Amino acid sequence: MTSHLFICIRTKPTKNQTQKNMKLKTFTLQSICLAACGMLATASANAQLVDPNFKPDGNLWGYVFGDYAVKSHSDTLSRGGGNVQYKGTTPLNSANTASSSNPAPVNTATNAFQIRRMYLGYDYQFAPNLGAYVVLANEQNVDGNGKNTTYLKYAFVKWSNVFKNSNLIMGQYQTCSFASGFGTEPLWGYRSVERTLMDMHNMDGSTDLGASLEGKVWSQKIAPDSLKPAFVGYALQVGNNNSATPNASNFKKVRGTLFVTAMNQKLTLGVYGDYQNTQFSPYHTSNLTAKAYVSYKTENFRIGFEMFEQTNLNSDIYKTYNADTKTYKGNDTATGIQMGWSVFASARIIKSRLNVFARYDMYTPDTKFNSNNQYSAVYGGIKGVNMSSATFYTQTFVTAGFDWTPNARLHIMPNIWYNAYNTMSGLTTSGPGGTGTDLSARVKSDNDLAYRVTFYFLFNQKNRVSNNGMDN
Fold first, then answer.
1. Kind and range of the H or E element at 317?
2. End-to-end CA distance of the chain
3. How crowded is the C-beta side of 256, counted as CA atoms within 13 Å?
4. 3-state DSSP assignment of residue 28
5. CATH superfamily of 47-459
6. Which tens digits make up the pLDDT trace of 170-211?
7. CA dihedral for 207, 212, 218, 223, sign (positive or negative)
């Protein structure tokens, strides 16, 4: 069998785009294309696209998780960006909402039953090394009438062993930033309780449209030795970086991860990185992410750690403060750096019946933040706001609970959900970053707190299921 691949790429520079940036972009695209051609040229030797004895097989599966939650306290300033679950939830009693005469509402408890995610998937193996995968999702999406809606989360074709120990995926795939195999989401194991750190703060999406090459760089030929790596895995991806929505930019995102498992796959260590240009004019902006993580698990417990840093080049627009005139001047750009780390753990109390889990996160939106500046825009598209008053704040997240599994496919998990906010600037009435109103100590440092009973059930899953707690 012979494979042919023809790729034609034409780029047209803008008037304000520099020759250096154009050369860099062209070189990157050419490198990706040449690498793809080289890899697919070797695929024919391993192709098994037609086998008269093979019988196609499919599987319909799905899962649902949600909660009964009681929110006992709400942050006074309704802070919490990204995918923070309970940000801005106000008491049901409208008399207790914030107003000019009552800037700090009374935190009356609210409660609700809620489904946070529903997945319905179908996997179809139509050749020995070709499979198709589709997943529909409802994740608190509503239409114009406030009704639940469902959208296409994943839809891809997987060419297994396109060349030795590597798979090619084309379509709407899982990103390797946290969601794919041996990433921090399956290692944490409790996505039904909360998103992982990067997902929670919207550093990257769990799905993207494009192409992905993943597999093993090296693996042992004999049974894994407890002191040597079982295998070294990798993933290289290029996509729109627009999650599950139509593409809105010509700038593609490149992702890559490398991880190793050792000690009979009890120990996992990994690194991840991604890069995307966001504009070249009127000045160059881009996002660069780096992450490292480690996880160790046994039959009775697991513990893990991850840390990331994302550099947002020229993404902050600000004015500097003139102490003599007590005014702000100029309009400049600055590079912001987001940073966070997370520790997660779980353990068995009663085998196959009762587990305990806990997690602690720290997140800083900009390690380069300067309280003497007045910010008019930051990465994320928030404009026209004095950022030092409400947006630049650190977040501390804590969750802990029990996982009761009367059946391996059913989890009932009482837990607490706590997210604390601390404004980074010391506000005064007339000084730098001033808003005319001092923040009291309670308002400067506040929190969202919820008590929950989370439920999680799965159906018709043939194989081992990730995000299934301690894999009961």
1. strand 301-322
2. 44
3. 7
4. helix
5. Porin (2.40.160.10)
6. 999 999 999 998 999 999 999 999 999 999 999 999 999 999
7. positive
